[in-house]
Amino acid sequence: MSGTNEPHESNGTADVLPPPMGFHVPEGMHAVSLTLDPAERAEAAAELVRDVYPKGDPQLWEAMGAIYVPVLEAMAGSGVCFTGIGIYDDQEGGVAHCSLTVAAMESDHEDAEAAALGLREIFGRRPKHDVRWLDLPCGPAVAVVTVKALTIDGEYTGSGEDSRLITGQIQVYVPFPTGPYIAVFTLDTSAMNQWDDLSELMAEIVKSVAFPAPEGTEGG
User: Fold this and answer.
1) Which secondary-structure segment (H or E) carries 59?
2) Do β-strands 95-106 and 181-189 pair in parallel, antiparallel, or remain unpaired?
3) Strand order in the sheet with 95-106
4) In angstroms, rounded to a whole number, what is the distance separating the alpha carbons of residues 5 and 94?
5) How far apart are CA 91 and CA 136, in angstroms?
6) pLDDT digits (tens, 9 = 90+) for 43-88
7) DSSP code, position 210
8) Which of 83, 88, 110, 86 is nearest to 98 (CA)?
9) DSSP label of 22
10) Which of 136, 177, 216, 220 has the fewest CB within 10 Å, making it most exposed?
11) How many Å apart are CA 33 and CA 111, to the nearest integer?
12) Which sign does the torsion angle of CA 120, 123, 127, 129 carry?
C-alpha cells in the first residue's frame, strides 16, 4: 500500500466554501472528487466503475454506474467532497477493501488546538470509542476508532444460516488552521484481517494533509 496520486483539493459544498485543503491517497484507491459539477460526477462515476470492475463488460458498467451516480449525488449534497474505494491484494489470495470519504463541516473554533481538545473530550465520553490524539504535520487532530459486529440474516448468506460480520471504522477530525472548519476523514472496512495495513494507509493519508494559504494572503 504505497505510492501517491496528485493532491485532492477540498472546496466543500456549503454556501461559504472552506479554504483549500490538499491530501494524497495511495495507489489502489479509486477516487472521485465530489466538488465536480453533476455532469463531471457522472463521468467520474463511470470511470470509477470501470476501475473497480476492470474485467466487467459494458452491461455491468452501465448497471453499476446507475447505482453509483445517485450515491455520489447524495454524498455531494450532504457535504462530502471526496470519496474513494480502496482495493488491495491481501497477500493471502484474496482482496482487502475499504471505503474512504472526506467532508468539511463548519465549526466556530478560532484555534485548531482548542478545537482538537474539545473533540477529544466529547468523543472520550462515548463508550466503545478508542480516541487518540494525533500531532500531524498540518497541526493537531483526533482519531476515533470503532469496531462493530453485525448479524447478517441467513436469507442473504450462502449457508442459509445467520452470519456475523465485524466491521471497523477510523475517523480522523482535522481542524482547519485557516478557517472555522473541521475536515472529517472516514475509512470503513470489513477486511479486518488487514486492519493493521488499512490503519497504516489511513495514517499516511492524514499525515499528507496540508492547508495552503488562501490566495491574497501573505505566502499565498
Assistant:
1) helix 58-77
2) antiparallel
3) 29-33, 80-89, 95-106, 181-189, 163-175, 139-152, 130-136
4) 24
5) 30
6) 888 888 888 888 888 888 888 888 888 888 888 888 888 888 888 8
7) B
8) 86
9) B
10) 216
11) 28
12) negative
> How buried is residue 70: exposed, middle or buried, by Cβ count under 10 Å (0-12/13-18/19+)?
exposed
Enter the pTM of the model: 0.81
Residues of the chain with pLDDT under 50: 1-16, 219-220
Q: Outline where DSSP puts E strands in 79-162.
A: 80-89, 95-106, 130-136, 139-152
DSSP letter at 125 equals T
Q: Is 65:47 a contact under the CB 8 Å cutoff?
A: no
User: Among 36, 35, 41, which Cα is nearest to 12's?
Assistant: 35
Residue 173 in grid coordinates? 477530525
Cβ count within 10 A of residue 194 = 22
Cell of 178: 485557516
C-alpha cell at 79: 457535504
What per-residue confidence (pLDDT) applies to 10? Answer: 43
Nearest to 193 by CA among 168, 175, 214, 158: 168
Pairwise CA distance, residues 159 & 95, whole Å: 21
Distance separating alpha carbons of residues 22 and 47, to the nearest angstrom: 22
Q: What is the DSSP letter of 70?
A: H
Q: Which residues are within 8 A (CB) of 9 and not within 5 positions of it... i.e. 6 or more apart?
A: 20, 21, 22, 33, 35
Residue 118 backbone phi and psi in degrees, to 5: -65, -40
